[in-house]
Write a structure and sequence with these properties.
Length: about 325
């Protein structure tokens, strides 16, 4: 069995709970210096790479600053800190519902991304927990959409992360969601929805397409209040936007959804008025490291149900 190549430890510490950028120099390429490769690869504005090199902000594996004439050595690494965007703080608590020496289970609020990506870097659940719990090696075992609230599983030890990730890959985690959407007297529930969902890169909304189903969701009506219903959603698969797509296909799109049935664009930064009414309510699994049976339940309540009159109008 072929062994994965060793990645050296970063010579730079985390900053604000965010890892520095690591770049591996490809084994193929005709660059004479590392500088030439970075100029071609990063497509940064003129002068940025040279400025970073001049200020000693790009370092080699031994921690020494990269020089402009440093020879290109295939297979080696360089590190630097990304330019962090100005981020508006998501003004909601990130609660820890469970913690031991192996895992952390957090109850994520709406509008907080799970892991650093794009314009959301320090204002993410992972970065916050690393800072607040003083756990720099913390990693995410899976992700929730930024607009979805609820339970997220994180791993404390990097060497155990793969074991917990495999639970989600192999569908060994029972996930239960709660949602608020319109009530339709003509919609027969409970039912299991099966379809093929395609999410194209660069396209905001996913879509159902012909073909072998790759997405399966159980939909149940838990409670009704006039024109709104509270639903229990149990996915057997984990396609992007799966529950949102399936509820929209049933004719009862989730309240507060900016993509389904109509794409109204991304939620503006700092607009926390109408959260998507979707909550990852429960996670249940057998711990692959300790063997313990876990069941965790979110303590959050969906706003549209708690403040029915405001949302039903």
């Amino acid at each position: 069995m072929r062994r994965k190549p060793r990645i050296p430890a970063s010579p730079l510490p985390q900053r604000d709970g965010v890892d520095p950028v690591r770049i591996k120099l490809p084994r193929e390429g005709g660059w004479a210096t590392v500088r030439e490769h970075l100029l071609a690869r990063l497509a940064a504005p003129d002068g940025v790479i040279d400025g970073m090199i001049g200020e000693g902000l790009i370092v080699r594996e031994d921690g020494r600053p990269l020089t402009a004439d440093a020879a290109y050595v295939p297979g080696t690494f360089v590190w630097f800190y990304r330019e962090l965007p100005d981020e508006e703080r998501v003004p909601f608590a990130l609660d820890v519902v469970y913690r031991d020496e192996h895992i952390v289970v957090a109850d994520k609020p709406h509008f907080l991304a799970t892991t650093p990506r794009g314009s959301h870097v320090t204002e993410t659940a992972l970065a916050r927990l690393r800072r607040e719990l003083d756990l720099p090696a913390l990693g995410a075992a899976h992700r929730l959409d930024r607009l979805t609230a609820g339970l997220v599983l994180f791993t404390v030890r990097p060497g155990e992360r793969g074991a917990y990730q495999s639970l989600f890959r192999d569908r060994l985690v029972r996930k239960e969601y709660e949602a608020v959407a319109p009530y339709d007297a003509g919609l027969a529930l409970p039912r299991t929805v099966r379809s093929r969902i395609l999410k194209e890169r660069g396209v905001m909304a996913a879509q159902e397409v012909p073909g072998e189903p790759n997405a399966v969701s159980r939909v149940e009506l838990v409670e009704r209040r006039d024109r709104l219903g509270r639903y229990r959603l149990t996915p057997s698969t984990g396609q992007t936007h799966q529950l949102r797509v399936h509820m929209n296909a049933l004719g009862v799109p989730l309240l507060g959804d900016p993509l389904y049935p109509v794409v109204t664009g991304p939620v503006p930064t700092g607009d926390f008025r109408r959260p998507l009414q979707l909550l990852a309510r429960a996670l249940e699994f057998t711990d692959p490291v300790t063997g313990h049976e876990h069941r965790f339940v979110s303590g959050r309540a969906l706003e549209a149900w708690a403040s029915y009159d405001d949302w039903a109008s």
